[in-house]
Amino acid sequence: MVRQFQSLLPDDILVAPTGYQNAWNIIEEHDAPDISFLSELVDKLGSYANVDSVRILGVSNGGALTLRAAVELDQKVIKSLVAIVSSLNTNAYHDGRFWGGDDYEQREKPAKNRDILLVQNTNDPLIPYEGGSGKIPGTVFLPALESAFVLAESQGFRGQALTFDDGEQDAQYPNVYTYIYSTNKKGGRVEHVRSDARHGMNEGIKSRVAEFLGY
Predict the structure, then answer these.
(1) Number of domains in the chain
(2) Orientation angle between helical segments 61-72 and 34-46, nearest 10 degrees
(3) Which of 60, 152, 193, 214 has a CA positioned 20 to 30 A from the CA of residue 180?
(4) What CATH number did the domain enclosing 36 receive?
(5) How many CA atoms lie within 13 A of 49 on its CB side?
(6) What digits encode the pLDDT tens for the residues 18-45?
């Protein structure tokens, strides 16, 4: 992860922990307390004098952990979260509410003033863009656009959900479309990027991720 992103995010201090058994615990992958671990790591990083904010970025299973962090972690030092090729699952959001905890039994209210980016591909063979079970055992995903909308609402957005045709086509990368929810000047911008890179990233996605994080 460090090698993959050090050229994309050259001014960031990159920290890339490895999950227990090379996986993060989203839907019973294992019993490790990964959200508690991530919370402690954020506190540790935020204690350094040369760290003024923490941005959490994850790909695939790491993107799912990033979305759990967006819902469950409330540290103010967390300013941006980027979930690549992942989406909210129906354990984390159902009945119009967010849920967390070991078995998703705990009601959650996501912290505000955060910028959140969700990246999904319409041809992803593992996580269906339109939502559903896909190929991740025991997991049902929300549609990509719905995930972005409910997270935008959690950040204070009050308005209509964007539709598939509302995406803004990138001038340089015509296979990349961006959907933007902006809530206030202090943060709380939620974006969704749609493309066709299957369960991965193309150059257009990388460009949008870098721009979202200020590069």
Answers:
(1) 1
(2) 70
(3) 60
(4) 3.40.50
(5) 0
(6) 999 999 999 988 889 999 999 999 999 9
